[in-house]
Design a protein that fits this description.
single chain, alpha+beta, 11 helices, 6 strands, 57% helix
Amino acid sequence: MRYSLSLAGAGLVLAAAPAGAETLREALAKAYNTNPTLTADRANVRAIDENVPIARAQGLPAANAAMQYSENVYNDANTLSNPKRQIGIQPQLSVPLYAGGGIRSSIRAAETRVDAGRLSLRDTEASVFSSVVGAYMDVIRDEAIVSLNAQNVHVLEVNLQASRDRFQVGDLTRTDVAQSEARLALARSQLQSAQAQLIASRESYIRFVGTPPGKLEEPPALPNLPADPEVAVDVALKDNPALLAAQKSRDATVYDVGTAAAARLPRVSAIASGNYFNYFDSLGSGTQFGLTQTGKSATVGVQLNLPLYQGGGPTALIRQAQARRGQAIEQVTEVERNVIAQARSAYAIWKSSLQVIASSEAAVNANKLSLEGVRAENSVGSRTILDILNAEQELLNSQITLVSAQRDAYVAGFSLLAAMGKAEARDLGLDGGALYDPVVNYKRVSHTIWDYAPAPAPKPVATRTTATPPQTAIVTKPLDPFLDTPVDSPATNPTDSAVRKR
């Protein structure tokens, strides 16, 4: 049973998988769960999440303790200023009260970049899915081309044998046989090239999907493609994840300027510190002056750090942040241009490929009729072997053009949906478990304030392909009975029958 693409809300859903063949839906699900490009980008988003607690930590209390132990291994006299041994412990607590707004700006910049990272992950998903669709369609196309070339070789072998038989009885010349031999040699070389391309396409499929392609089901039709390129561009400018990510990155640079400006402003902190010392009864006769061998103290206060001159560093940081913001603004325009170009070019390729499909289908049907007529005319001597060979080659060329156009139309259509932000994991109903949610990790880490929270070591997620066997160019498809006909076979069409009666 063939499955189909249907819309769910604003996106498309792959529904109803067929039995007995690998489907596009299954290939996309495998890539979603095990493609290293995608799993690596998810790890990158988790790393970006950590910038929020890192920025927030700058505004939280900081506690530390310094401890020192010393042993005087040699001294002339054990005096008040020269004890034999001592230990000192100084704990300190610092609470930021005011930092010129720099901490607040850092947190907001980090949060905005988290949003940009999630959007970038969506763009990566769309890119990986587009690559999977391209690899999937490449295999289908190249299997068809190999099958067509293999059948062409078979037909030319039959033609050559028929030409040799007719040459033996004097019905054909040696030139006719040589023409058949030359065309067969050329067909075999074309078959070898097609087989090499099929192997390359199957290896590319493994690269993106992670497993060798089995018998691939024909893909479903793509739904709700735009009626004109302007509709595609309008949707893309609103929903393309790469453009939205660039806009978020631009927005984050506003806070970077604020963070840099805070370096020129005062900083206020509350300070609490303590001190404990112990001379281990090695202070000599210090007690006669009212001193003790141990002691402790504590202080609290407010510390003001007022920058007066920093060598121009803060101004340089502000200028740098402003320049980075200018760069981010220009990058939004760059991405916007790319999105517009991608949407319009994908639309143009898709529409032109549909026209090529219609023309190629007409050409295939016409070339079949032409080949049938040339064979009939050859049977009564009005056509040569070369005419048959040319007709067969024209039919092969039109069939290859057709399958190539079908591949190009599908890939361009999916690329168009991807440019419009409608071909991501959230839009596809994929089997294989729940979709990856980057918000889960953010909620887990964004407010973590414990220095010794567990940090599990990463483990491989993507599957390796070292165990996959080298791909072959084996294709098992039945031959077309129409083409599997000797040159000198009796004509079966009415025109040829009339010729034979005369």
